[in-house]
Amino acid sequence: MISLKGREKFLILLTLTALIAAAVVPEFLAAYNSDPSGTSSTTYPATSVPVANNQVPPMYATVPSGKFFYASSEDFAPPGQVDVYLVGWLGCHVALSDGWPLYVIMSGFGQLNYTFGTSNPYRPFPNTTGLIFTGYQPYEPDEPVHFYYIYLYNKWMNETADCQPIPEGDLIPVGANETSHFLPTPLYQLVMHYQLDAVFNGTHEPLAILKTHIVTVLIITGPNGTYMAYGPLYNILPLKEANGQYVMEHLYDQKMFSNIWDGVNVIEQTIREAAGTSVNITFSS
User: InterPro entries from the entry (predicted)?
Assistant: First the structure.
């Protein structure tokens, strides 16, 4: 559980964020912006599809782990496009392991820069080897699939990804604030519902409260609605203490890394489901 101090700060921060977002987010999102720190996408999303009162009704009060679920019927991507968002942190086994299949898929639509990373050795699935994205640029502005990412915390969860100290008990409000500047406002509100209100199947506390921080989530949104996934999408055990360079050199060997390609197939299928018949998508993988 987060401390009372943390809860109070989060409620105050959430109120201020909502007021500020209502005034400035539409103009902010209408333009493309760069992030020189490399902790988030090189370009921010274009203006999102309007939603009445910026309120999106959630689909579920409980969510599964390790697979995509249908989070909303709303489309938060521009017309004729599917958007993929990775919200994570630098020491998270989920964000790092998601990097491998995302690299395979999104390299077909843009140039990805990355470094190798390993997960926090003191948390579940320690020393999992994966990718940390440092830049993404679509090949063409009208690519049918666009990718955005942000890292909220450093590997040890005592600073933000750009090295700003985080006071004890403030991981949730700080992470929520970072997320609010990254996602279109209605999508941010939907994500916060699944972080702060919904629970994992088999638990009795909201996701972020249970973990004491904003939890890594992979989001895919398009004409058919919005999908989210928490937890590893494939067997990541073979990635423990793996050599990142070796994995990258053999990444397209589907027999050697069949586990990663299980993740590729899951994500590609969900992109197709989000696109429906409205967006023509061809995967290079």
Answer: DUF929
* pLDDT tens profile 15-48: 444 433 333 333 322 322 334 346 776 434 433 3
pLDDT in tens, 98-143: 999 999 999 999 999 999 999 999 999 999 999 999 999 999 999 9
Q: Taking CA 217 as the corner, what is the angle to CA 87 and CA 152, rounded to the nearest 5 degrees?
A: 30
Strand partners, 110: 138
Cα–Cα distance for residue pair 159/178, rounded to 1 Å: 12
Residue 85: what residue type?
Y
Terminal C-alpha separation, the chain: 42
List % helix, strand, coil for the chain (3-state, nearest 5). 35, 20, 45
Residue closest to 125 by CA, chosen among 82, 91, 78: 91
Cβ neighbours of residue 276 closer than 8 Å, sequence gap 6 or more: 222, 223, 224
Q: Which residue has the tokens 């993740």?
A: 263
Specify whether the CB–CB gap between 122 and 185 falls below 8 A.
no
- Beta-carbon-side half-sphere exposure of residue 141 (alpha carbons within 13 Å): 2
Which band of pLDDT confidence, cut at 50, 70 and 90, is reported for residue 55? low
Residue 148: closest CA among 20, 41, 266: 41
Annotate 167-228 with DSSP letters as a single string.
Answer: -TT-HHHHHHHHHHTTS-HHHHHHHHHHHHT-EETT-SSBHHHHHTSPPPEEEEEETTEEEE
In three-state secondary structure terms, 129 is strand
Among candidates 77, 86, 73, 213, which has minimal Cα distance to 156? Answer: 213
